[in-house]
């Protein structure tokens, strides 16, 4: 074998390996895109179940599943469309096949909205979808332009308002009194506002470069931490008083665990760090995204012991 043949073969091997490495990277990023919203969707479905419990209404498994599918659809759509700050904040999605993410988002939304339509709640399915699109991309008609992203704390407000209304609306569709629904809306709206702000602490670099005025970027870490703590204490004080007075169901495990978990999250995860360790990321995921799973688990164990 002469040198030209040898080097030619070697070059073809290198090209083949580069091509396969790129394909593997795209497949891996696409898989990451598809699975990145599973936990938040599962957590959201359990939050709907918790809302049923607080409202003293028999929980509908189909409503919870449909809600989870809509949540998955909205978050996957947001990540598939991408944004400027995601280049830094979500590097693991770089190179993913966005069309697959969009297809998965469309399929799950159709299934979820079909179930909700059969229960007479189709409008609630479109609430987070439309709001999410207005936040991520916005609309422009002539000189008129509407985009929710960019203002001080707007993202957190949109997250809290939208998902608070979605969760309390699904669970409270048959509730005769508005006051318990408003209390459940406040509980989840404030909870998700705080959670989204906690996640902003790890995204400060990307949000700053993209010009997005999140609360940690604009107010600073300590001021934001104090604000979240005050909001957390106030919301749980209101829920505690409502629980004692019988306005919502007597569910002390839900309120107490949420209170303790919220304090831990605000204390531990409102500190900026350039590189987040795997153990810290796992711990944050369990406490923030896995809170509803823990609550339902504790509630099930307590019910078994009481029985």
From TrEMBL:
Keyword Transmembrane: yes
Entry protein name: UbiA prenyltransferase family protein
Location (main, coarse): membrane
Organism of this sequence: Methanosarcina vacuolata Z-761
Keyword hit for Transmembrane helix: yes
Source lineage: Archaea, Methanobacteriati, Methanobacteriota, Stenosarchaea group, Methanomicrobia
Molecular function GO terms recorded: transferase activity, transferring alkyl or aryl (other than methyl) groups
Pfam families in the record: UbiA
Keywords tagged on the record: Membrane, Transferase, Transmembrane, Transmembrane helix
Superkingdom of the organism of origin: Archaea
């Amino acid at each position: 074998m002469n040198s030209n043949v040898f080097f030619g073969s070697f070059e073809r091997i290198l090209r083949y390996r580069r091509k396969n490495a790129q394909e593997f990277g795209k497949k891996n990023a696409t898989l990451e895109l598809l699975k990145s919203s599973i936990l938040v969707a599962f957590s959201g479905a359990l939050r709907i179940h918790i809302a049923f419990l607080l409202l003293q209404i028999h929980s509908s498994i189909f409503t919870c599943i449909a809600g989870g599918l809509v949540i998955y659809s909205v978050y996957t759509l947001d990540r598939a469309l991408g944004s400027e700050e995601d280049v830094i904040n979500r590097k693991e999605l770089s190179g993913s096949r966005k069309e697959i993410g969009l297809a998965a988002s469309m399929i799950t939304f159709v299934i979820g909205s079909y179930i909700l339509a059969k229960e007479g709640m189709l409008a609630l399915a479109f609430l987070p979808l439309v709001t999410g699109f207005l936040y991520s991309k916005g609309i422009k008609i002539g000189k008129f332009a509407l985009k929710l992203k960019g203002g001080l704390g707007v993202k957190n407000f949109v997250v809290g308002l939208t998902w608070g209304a979605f969760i309390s609306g699904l669970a409270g569709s048959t509730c005769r009194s508005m006051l318990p629904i408003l209390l459940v809306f406040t509980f989840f709206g404030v909870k998700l506002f705080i959670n989204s702000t906690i996640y902003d602490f790890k995204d400060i670099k990307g949000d700053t470069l993209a010009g997005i005025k999140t609360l940690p970027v604009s107010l600073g870490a300590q001021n934001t931490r104090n604000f979240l703590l005050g909001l957390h204490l106030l919301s749980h004080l209101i829920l505690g008083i409502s629980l004692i007075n019988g306005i919502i169901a007597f569910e002390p495990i839900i309120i107490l665990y949420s209170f303790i978990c919220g304090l831990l999250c605000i204390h531990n995860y409102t500190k900026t760090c350039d590189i987040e360790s795997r153990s810290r990321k796992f711990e944050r995921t369990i406490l923030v995204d896995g809170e509803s799973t823990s609550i339902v688990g504790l509630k099930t164990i307590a019910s078994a012991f009481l029985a």
